[in-house]
Design brief:
- By secondary structure, this protein is an alpha/beta fold.
- Helix content is about 40%, strand content about 10%.
- It has 18 helices and 15 strands.
- The chain has helices spanning about 1-20, 20-30, 55-65, 80-85, 85-100, 115, 125-130, 145-150, 170-175, 190-200, 215-225, 240-255, 290, 330-340, 370-380, 385-395, 410-420, 425-440, and strands at about 45-50, 70-75, 105-110, 160, 160, 165-170, 185, 230, 235, 280, 300-305, 310-315, 320, 365, 400.
- It has a five-stranded mixed beta sheet, covered by helices on one side.
- Strand 1, helix 3 and strand 2 form a beta-alpha-beta unit.
- Helix 12 packs across helix 18.
Amino acid sequence: MKIKCLLIVIFLLCLTACNPVENVNDIEEDNIVINNSEEDLTGELTISAIFWNDSMNHMIDLFCSQHPNVSIDVKAPNTEEILQSDIGTLRGQMITELLSGNGADIYEIQLISSYKYSKSGMFENLYDFMEQDSDFEIQDYYTNILKCCEHNGELNWFPQSFSYSFIQFNENIVGDLDYDFNTVNSINYKDIDSIYNLAKKDEMMDQDMVIDNEAVIKTICNPIEIRSYIDTDTLSSTLDSDDFIEYLIIMNELPFAPFKPDVNGPSSIDFEDSHQLTKIWRLSFFDWEELFNISINETKPYQFSSSDGKNTFAINDLGLAISKSSKNKALAWEFIKFVSSEQKYEFDDENSELFYRKLPGTSFMPINRHNYEQLADHFSEGELWQVEYIDNINRNLDAKSFYDPNIDSIIKDLLQDYFDRNLMSANDCATQIQDVISRYLDE
C-alpha cells in the first residue's frame, strides 16, 4: 500500500514538473493589471519604430516629466540610417525582432503591414486594457475609426490620427448646373464624371475646362478606389472586375491638368478666373485655418469617397501596439493612453510645451474627439455649422484604405504604365494588379 501511494506521489510530482511554470506564466501573461491607483508610475519601456517623429519625442518628454520614475528608450534609425538603408531591410529587422519574443514593449507598426501582423497573435488586444481602465472613456474617441482598425474583433494597435480627402467644386462652373449639391454628403469618381459632362453641355462653358491637377489621380483617387476591391479580413481581392476596369477607363478619359506636387491643402488653387472644375485635397500637413475658410468661388468641401459607397480614410500617422512579450504591459498602455488623450492646446505661444503643432495628430485629424473640437473651435472663428459638419464626416468614416509597403511600389508602377506611359490597356492593368495583390495576400 505504501509503495502504491509512493508511486502515485512520484507520478504527480513528475506531472507537475512538466507543466507548472508554463501554465502559471500563461495565466500571469493573460491577466492585465491596470494602474487605477493614485500611485506614481514606475518602470522602463522600450519602443521600436522605423519612423519616429519629433512630436512623439515631445510626448515622451511630457510623460516622463509627469512620471519621473519612468524611463523610455526609443529604438529607431536616424535620418542618415534611413537614407542609407533599404526600408525593406529595416522592416525585416523589426519583424525578426518581433518573432524572437525578446523585443520592445511598444511597436510602431505602420510600415510592417498592420493588417497582417495584427492577426499574428504578436500584439495585445487593446480593448482588454480599455475595459479594465476606469480612467479611459472610449466615447472620447472616434470609435468608428477604431472599429475599422480591428481584426476579428480585436484592436491590436492604436492610431493617433487619421486623414481623408475632400473635393470642392468651382462655384463659377457648377453654380447654374442642374445638380442638387444640397443633398450630397460625399462625392466619388462617378459623380465627378456626371458633373463634368453636365458642365460640358453648357454652351457658355469654356472648352478648356479640366478636372484637377493630375497628381490627385495617383495620390488620392487610386488609393481610395482600390480599397473597395480588397478585403483584408478574408485576404481576397477582385481588382480584375468590370467595375474597376470602368474606373480606370473613366479616370483616364477625364481631362486633368499637368502634374503639380502639392495636393495637401485647400489653397492649392484659387477658383477665381479658373478653368478648373474641382480641387481634390487631403488632410495631410494642412493648415487648420484653411479647412474652415470657404471662399465665394467654391462649394463647401465634400468627403471624397469610393464608388462602393464607403467613406474611406487613411492612417498616415503612427500606430502603436503592445507586444505580447512585453514585461511591462500596464506601463506601455499608460503611455499609449497618454499620447492619444485629450490635450490642452496652446495656440499663440510657439514656445509653449503644449503648442498644438508640437503635439502628435495635429497635422491630420486627431483620433480624440476633444482634440478635434479644440482645433475646430479655435480655427473656425465661430462657424459652428462647419465644426459640426466636419465632425459628422469624421463620425461616418467607415472604411480604412488599403496600404501595404511591400507591394505599394509595384501597384504604383502598374498604374503609371497605364495612366502616364500608355503601355497597357485598362483590362491588362486591372489583371496585373489583381495578380500582384492576390498572390501577396495568399502568402
